[in-house]
Amino acid sequence: MKTILFLINGFGTEAKGSYSVYDSDTMPNFDKLMKKYMFSTLHTDVKNINDGYRNMSLEVNGLYNYDIYSREAVENKIVNNETYLDIQKELNERKSKLHLFCFVDTSIKIVENLKDFLKNINKEKDKKIFLHLVLASNNYEDYPSIQEVLSKINIELQGYATIGMVLGLSNILNSTSQVDMNFFLRNMITELGEKWQSFKQKLDVNYGMKTAPILTKPFVVNTGFSIGNNDMFMIWNYDNIDISNFIDSVKSIDYKEVPNSIKFYSLFPITYKETIPFILHFEVAKRSLASNMKGLGFKSVVMAKKSDISGINYYLNGMEMVNNPDITYIGIEDVLYNKEMMVNLINQYTQELIIINYDVIDAKSIEELKENLNKIDSVLGAIYDNTEKNSYNIIVSSLYTIDKVLENKNGEICNVLYSKVPIIYADNFITKKTHLINDGNISELLKVCYKSINKKYPGTTIIERKNFLYRLIFK
Q1: Residue 347 to residue 390: CA distance in whole angstroms
Q2: 472: exposed, middle or buried (C-beta count within 10 Å: 0-12, 13-18, 19+)?
Q3: Does residue 418 contact residue 13 with C-beta atoms inside 8 Å?
Q4: CA–CA dist 339, 344 (Å, integer)
Q5: Domain annotation for the chain: domains and CATH numbers
Q6: 98: which strand partners?
Q7: Which of 2, 246, 321, 420 has CA 20 to 30 A from 88's CA?
Q8: Is the dihedral of CA 424, 425, 431, 437 positive or negative?
Q9: pTM here?
Q10: Mean of the per-residue pLDDT values for the chain?
Q11: Which tens digit of pLDDT belongs to each residue from 423-457?
C-alpha cells in the first residue's frame, strides 16, 4: 500500500501556559483528519530535523553513539580498553593536564558517559583534568536544554574535572580563520579573555541576542588550565569531525627551548592526516529505514529542503553516508506551497513510502506561524484528496517541537511551547472503529508506516485492535 508520511516539523500539541496558535480555521484539513481518523500524540525531546530523523529511523530516543559508550561501560569494557589504559598511563607518568574538549548538544546522556569516564580515570581526584565545553548546536532555541546539560555536568563532575572554557564549535572548525584560531589559542595559553563564573548568565545573553550556540565566543569559567608543552588533549566526540587546523595549531605551539610533546586522543574516530588514538569504533545501526526497506521489500522517496538531505540520508541509512538506490531525494523549496505541483510530484513516483518534510521553526511572529501552518494545511488537504482518489494512506506527524518567544499582532510577547507531536493515521481499512493508536515516542513513527505499507509487518506498533468490551463501551 502506498503511504505518505506528511511531516509538519516543529508543530505540536500546546503545553500548559503556551500561547494558543492552533485552531480549526487555521488548519481545517488537519482538524478534519484528526476527527475522522485515529489520532494520538508522540513524545520527542529533540529540536531539529537531523536529531528527529536519527530517533525515527534508528528507533532510539537519543544519540545512538551515547548508547555505544553506555553499553561498553556497563559491560566493564571501557576500563580495559587499550586507548583508555594508554590515557591513564600517560596521565600518571606525564603528571600534566588533560584537556577534554567535550562536544555538547541537548542530550543529558552525555553526563552519564562523562561521569563514568572521569570517575575511572581520576579515582583519587588527583589529576589535573579540565573540561572545555564545545557547544555544537545551530539552533538558538536549544539554550534551555544546553544549560540543563551544562548545569548537570557542573554539579555531577565536581572533584573529577574542572570546567575551563566554554566555546562554540565554530571556533575550532577548519573554516575558522587562522587569526581567530590563534586568538583562541592565546586565550588557552594565557587564560586571558572574557570571564564568566556563571555560564548561565553568559548563555542567557546569547539567547537574548539569538546567537546560535555554535557561534559562542570563547569565555573562561575557571582558571588554571593554561596549555603546557607536555599536556594531553581528548576530543570527546560522538560524530566524526575534521578539526585538523585546530590540532595542527596546538601541535605547532612554540615552547622555545622545551619541545612540544602534546598528545591527542578522541572518543570516536576523527578525520586527521595521522591516526589519532580513539576509544570506541562507530557502528552501523542495526535498525534503520534502509534495513527495514530491504527486509520488507519496498522503496522510498524523501521530499525536503536540499540543505537537509545530507543529514536525512545519513540517518535513514543507519549512520552511513551512502548512495542508496532505493531511496530517492527531491528538493522541494521551489514548490513547497504549490498544491498542484506537490500532488503531481507524489503521483509521479511509484515508491511505496513518500516522506514529505515541512517545518515552521523559522516563523518570526505568531501571525507568520499561523500563516505558514495554514499554507501547509492547504497542501495537506490537496494531498489527502489525492490519496482518497488513488487509495493511498496518509500519516500526519512531526519529528520535533518548538519553544519560541514570538510577537503577536498586538505587539505582545508570547511563548509558543509545544510539548508533544501529533500523529494521525488515515487508513480506510484499519480505522478508529476497530483499532486505536496509543501514545508513544517518535521512534515508533516509521513502524506505523511499515504497518501501513504491509499489513503483515511482523513488528509491534502503537496501533492495536480494540477488544470486544472496548468496542461495546466506547462505540
Answers
A1: 9
A2: exposed
A3: yes
A4: 9
A5: 3-59+287-474 (3.40.720.10), 64-266 (3.40.1450.10)
A6: 129, 232
A7: 246
A8: negative
A9: 0.75
A10: 91
A11: 999 998 888 888 899 999 999 999 999 999 998 89
